Amino acid sequence: MKKIVNDILKEELYYDKLDCGLEVFFMPKEGFSKKYAVFATNYGSNELEFIPINENQKIKVNEGIAHFLEHKMFEQPDGGNAFDKFSLLGASANAYTNFTMTAYLFSATDNFHESLDHLIDYVQTPHFTDENVEKEKGIIAQEINMYDDNADWKVYFNTLKAMYIKHNTRIDIAGSVESIYKIDKDELYKCYNTFYNPSNMALFIVGDLDCNKVMETVNKAIKPKDTLDNIKIFKEDEPNEVNQKEIVENLSVSIPLFNIGIKDLDVNRSGNDLLKKEICTEIILDMILKKGSSVYEKLYLSGLINQNFGCDHVSQIDHGYTILGGESKDPHKVRDIIFEYINKYKQDGLEKEDFDRIKKKKIGMFLKYFDSVEFIANNFISYHFRDINFIDYLDVLKSVTFEDVSDRFNKHFDEKYSVISIINPK
Amino acid sequence: MHKVERINLGDKINLTFIGVDKFKTNLISVYMQRPLDKKEVTKNALIPNILKSGSNKFKSQREISKKLDNLYGAGIYADIAKKGDMQILSFKMSITDETYLDEKILKESLIFLNDMINDPLVEDGGFNKEYVDIEKNNLSDKIKSRINDKSRYALERCIEEMCKDEKFSIYEYGYEEDIESINEKNLYDHYKNIIKTSPIDIVIAGNLDKDKVLEYIKNIFKFERENVIDIVGDNNIGTVESVKNVVDKMDVTQGKITLGYRTNIDYKDDRYYSLMVYSSILGGGPHSKLFVNVREKESLCYYVYSMIEKYKSIMFISSGIEIDKYDKAIELIGEQLEKIKKSEISNEEIVNSKNSIINSINSVRDSLNSLSDFYYSQGISGVNENLDSIMKKIENVEIKDVVDVSSDITLDTVYFLRN
Fold first, then answer.
1. Does the distance separating the beta carbons of B352 and A301 come in below 8 Å?
2. What is the pTM of this model?
């Protein structure tokens, strides 16, 4: 068991890798009532072609299967539901699937060890039958329909479809009503047995708890399995261009919604190298686009954007993008003004003063985030699958220089690799 | 653990100090109470964004932002909310605890927050005209954009229809037709009146020295006060003559239903805690009757839940369904309420429900914002309970108490959003 201490944060992190390959992290949080655990697999909706465990032929599975699997994991061999026991213990449980991972979690103010035992146990106990798989289809179809009416979701997914030509991130996480109806129990087991091996998973625990006792519960609950070597996943190469410059759809909304996406070509990085790229990009967004920047002020005062305007950067190992979005009567004009400013900064250079101010801001905000156990756990686990130890964030942030940021700005913020997605009122 | 102290600062201004040492953040909140009234609701809704647009010292959003960045990413949140028959304006500032930083920022932050509230940007006896015009447009867009979130919209429409003749039906962000007559002068006059006459609460929470904070607050926060108003709400207890059925049509894929019920139980009544358990058994999570029977057994929906509108003694049930499954959904929901009436509640159901509520009450301690809102709400509603005593009351609820409240719960309005 290793212990890492961060003096600025005044936090400690314990780490261990079990014989079965599972990596376990624990962060003590003295005085907090809530204890939180997240058990996750490095497997999300993007993984659609792979060689299943103990087989040698690659298979292509139905879209939305990782998310379907997440729903079905709650099914218990006795016919009950994994929620039942959490409820009895007073724990609040949930799960989520995104493009790259699937996570199972709970928070509890009481009965933590029993709940943790149950979490580890149920995620290791698949129970799929023809009947229970069939029954889930109606529920997931309603979940997909719900998102179909959600304009924020639509405008975002259309941006991904516009940016990507081959990469699976252009496919909806939940799949389509058509694709999920083709899923059966054998396909679910193949995915489960391949990707839910402890050596492909991680467990993060945070709360006012005793480290030894936590590890004891984990060790007791984890079921031994042969560790897996690398899982063979197949992905098509993504061309260095965008799929389509513009994508427009109509929905029942009152004012057009837009997302401007900028595709990142600087990919296939991991670890602190990837983290540094992410932090540099976030600093740039703060410097030139968020509140406090001249472009935001111009757009806001001319009534082209409102308080809903925001921007974000996603840095995954094999893909990445920046998204700027909000509501506007004239999304094209917003895009033109933004790139006008970007091109101006490319000529004149960024402002060092802005850089210093934003760095200060980011340090203060990062410290505040550590007041939320949910934030801590969910971020640690998602960074972990990108080979990043989240506790290093402040060190990497402090090491970033103005030159790093200027360099990243010149490379990434290119109109040529930008797309616009618009949802117009019907 | 946390310590709470309420201090009367005079002029109907209360200070609540929440001392708690586990956080890296300090949160300062200023709340002002207004009556929920059609005559002023739209003006009140404009105020937060006007104040955030510029103060006398920091004349633009951009200058404000830069100042906040330099205070190590301090955050300002200003908004309005509906609480029963009141409209609450809140201004919050969240800062990093200065013991983690190289600089002291608490006092400067308090001065900043006071400037935003008590020294706004005023020109020729009014707010800045440009900012007011922009925010009038933004508010109008915001009101129009109510249709964007369909499940929220279904809930708000149900409230509007159900409480037609009551103050509670007023939409907290106001009305488009009232925006035009607002200008920089009459809005500023109204704001001065808000400062003069509203009951004001300051809540400060974090790892702080009480005496130092008290001294800062007394020296920094200066409100111009006059005759402070008392806010009187509607009577929330009454009978339902006949169930209202309301259908709206919109181009949607999924149908949204919201059912509104009169609970006839006041939040000051001890039976309110039985009502909380009732709602949890009915639709408070994966352990609830609605989740198990409508979602899991019948695969009718992805989400279905019930919730209580504490200050208005009403309860809602919401779900998203296939449009042609409307009758089936209504029937199944009705059956779940009937089961509770007939005392068909297992021991497991009541234990699960109580545990779930206790878990969320306990979790309030882990968020400065929840703690601040909790003690503020307790203070203004005159309920003298703390987190521990509420948990105790929940603990003591028995099946017979749940069945007892079920007889008071009456369906008032069924709302359906469909294509």
1. no
2. 0.93
